[in-house]
Amino acid sequence: MTDALLQPQGRQRYARLLAQAWTNALHVLHPDKWNDAFCDDFRQHWQTNAGLQIDPLPLNRMLAPALTAAGVDS
User: Fold this and answer.
1) What is the DSSP string of 21-71?
2) Which one of 3, 10, 52, 72 has the fewest CB atoms closer than 10 angstroms to its CB?
3) How many angstroms separate the CA atoms of 49 and 51, rounded?
4) What does the radius of gyration of the chain's CA atoms come to, in whole angstroms?
5) Tens digit of pLDDT for each residue in 12-42?
6) Separation of CA 71 from chain center
C-alpha cells in the first residue's frame, strides 16, 4: 500500500516524537478507547471504528495533566 500513514518512515518519525516525551492528546483522556480521525467505508471501517488517526494531537507529557477535553468530531 502506498498510503503515507502506513509507511515505515512516517511511523518511525512518530515513534521518535513519542520517545521525546510527547504523547497523543486523545490517548491521555481516552486511554482505553481507540480514537480515529478518519474512517472510510472500505471493509466497514466506520462501523467498526477501525480507521486511522491521520492528525494526532501531540502533547507534551508535562502538560498532559492540564488537558480537560479532546475528541474526534465524527
Assistant:
1) TEEEHHHHH-TTS---SB--SGGGHHHHT--B-SS--EEETTTGGG-----
2) 3
3) 6
4) 13
5) 888 888 889 888 888 888 887 766 666 666 6
6) 10
Amino acid making up residue 66: A
Sign of torsion over alpha carbons 22, 25, 31, 35: negative
- Which run of H or of E encompasses 8? helix 8-19
Mean pLDDT of the chain: 78
Place of cell 491521555: 28
Cell reading at 33: 478507547
- Amino acid making up residue 53: Q
How far is Cα 64 from Cα 70, in angstroms, rounded to an integer? 11
